[in-house]
Write a sequence for this structure.
């Protein structure tokens, strides 16, 4: 390799990355773009400002740099368990125990549905406004899970339906907590239980929320493509978007779920068609609208266009969209600037990096 210093046998990962990148004749910007990261991120790896990434990213780097043996890239540097697993939150065991318990016999009095709803709203507020979401809800979840399950079983009539609605939301929060941790079985469990609770409530809005989170689970796992699309379509058909604002928001969410499913399969036309339907419904709600816990609104629909572009294998963002749509985020809803701005920043960052480079 003319003009390149030979690689030392004991060279660390940082030097090896720079060596093989130079050998491949690719700039930092090109390598970063091919793995969904920035040139600055590649530079930080090559200058040891950040450590060696996890195994999935190492494999992608090896593919981009045409390295057959991964050991050539890592060298003698040991890979800790964190290199090939996801980090577990310190309170994960207590959440797992709460999900694995089955309160068949209990003498506890059920929490009234309205009290339960207030506690669930508090948990959502903690999740959406805290910088460290998992830590903010970890102390709330075990009690919420226990109380919501008892209430959904022991209350009667409309109160029981309301408790089931709230139980579905508690499972949503638990699913968000478990995501990006080494417990995929809990992500599946909470998604499935949330849908059962929503169906017990016989509430299309609750089922729409459950369908959205189930779609995330199936789509990220690359499974049940037809089933997840059919589920979103069926739930959308139960909603009344012309009559109710919340139904219209959830109608937009279901079409966004369908769009994301099509994008994952590379069906560009169908993906943008359903995204535009979601966009039209969301914009009719007003520029400042954001659902209180699902956060669906015009800004969210626009930001998910980034994810659609990435899943359609368009990593180089050019801001191009079909006529009538835009990626410009909406303004915060009155009275909730912190919730919206934090959600918007997290969504953009995750769409551009985490989902593509775990």
């Amino acid at each position: 390799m003319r003009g390149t210093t030979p690689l030392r046998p004991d060279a660390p990962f940082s030097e090896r990355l720079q060596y093989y990148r130079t050998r491949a004749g690719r700039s930092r910007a090109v390598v970063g773009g091919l793995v969904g990261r920035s040139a600055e991120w590649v530079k930080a790896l090559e200058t040891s400002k950040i450590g060696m990434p996890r195994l999935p990213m190492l494999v992608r780097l090896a593919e981009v740099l045409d390295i057959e043996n991964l050991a050539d890239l890592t060298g003698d540097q040991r890979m800790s368990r964190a290199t090939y697993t996801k980090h577990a939150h310190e309170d994960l065991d207590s959440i797992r125990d709460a999900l694995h318990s089955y309160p068949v016999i209990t003498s506890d009095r059920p929490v009234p549905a309205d009290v339960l709803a207030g506690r669930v709203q508090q948990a959502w507020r903690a999740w959406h406004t805290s910088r460290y979401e998992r830590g903010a809800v970890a102390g709330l979840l075990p009690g919420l899970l226990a109380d919501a399950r008892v209430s959904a079983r022991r209350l009667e009539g409309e109160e029981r339906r309301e408790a089931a609605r709230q139980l579905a939301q508690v499972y949503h929060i638990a699913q968000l907590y478990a995501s990006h941790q080494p417990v995929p079985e809990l992500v599946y469990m909470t998604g499935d239980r949330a849908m059962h609770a929503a169906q017990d409530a016989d509430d299309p809005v609750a089922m729409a929320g459950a369908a959205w989170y189930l779609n995330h689970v199936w789509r990220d796992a690359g499974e049940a493509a037809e089933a997840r699309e059919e589920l979103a379509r069926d739930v959308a058909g139960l909603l009344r978007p012309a009559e109710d604002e919340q139904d219209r928001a959830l109608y937009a969410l279901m079409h966004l779920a369908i769009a994301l499913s099509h994008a994952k399969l590379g069906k560009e036309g169908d993906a943008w068609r359903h995204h535009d339907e979601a966009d039209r419904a969301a914009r009719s709600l007003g520029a400042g609208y954001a659902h209180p816990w699902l956060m669906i609104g015009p800004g969210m629909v626009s930001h998910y266009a980034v994810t659609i572009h990435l899943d359609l294998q368009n990593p180089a963002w050019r801001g191009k969209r079909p006529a009538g749509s835009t990626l410009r985020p909406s303004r915060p809803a009155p009275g909730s600037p912190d919730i919206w701005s934090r959600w918007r920043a997290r969504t953009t960052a995750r769409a551009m990096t985490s989902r593509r480079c775990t």
Residues 157-178 form the longest helix (22 residues). Confidence is low (pLDDT under 50) at residues 314-358. The chain is about 65% helix and 0% strand. The radius of gyration is 23 Å.
